[in-house]
Amino acid sequence: MNLNDIYQRFDRLESLLLAKKDVFTIGEFCRYAGLSKSAAYKLTSQRKIPFSCPNGKVIFISRRDADAYLQSNRVPSTYEINATAANYITLNPLTSFK
How far is CA 71 from CA 64, 65, 66, 67, in A? Predict the structure, then answer.
């Protein structure tokens, strides 16, 4: 086993441990969300994601808030759009053509 394999295993273990945390530091949030630090700081400064700053310096983001942010702006699939349209047409049939 070479050094590169050890680093890869260490990264996988770190990722598994990170997935178990309930509160992230800004660096952990970046790794969890796949964002750069500047993007994460921009989200907090624009208040697009809730965060805590108990001592005035270190930013903490809850896993629940991180997941809610990552799942926001959901785009429906073509199947969901077609199903919604079919349901609407079924419930609201056209009574006359003009």
Answer: 11, 10, 9, 6
Is 49 within 8 Å of 43 (Cβ atoms)?
yes
What is the rounded average pLDDT of the residues 27-49? 94
SS (H, E, C) the chain: CCHHHHHHHHHHHHHHHHHCCCEEEHHHHHHHHCCCHHHHHHHHHCCCCCCECCCCCCCEEEHHHHHHHHCCCCCCCHHHHHHHHHHHHHHCCCCCCC
Distance CA 86, CA 98 (A): 21
Neighbours of 33 (CB within 10 A): 18
- For residue 97, is pLDDT > 80? no
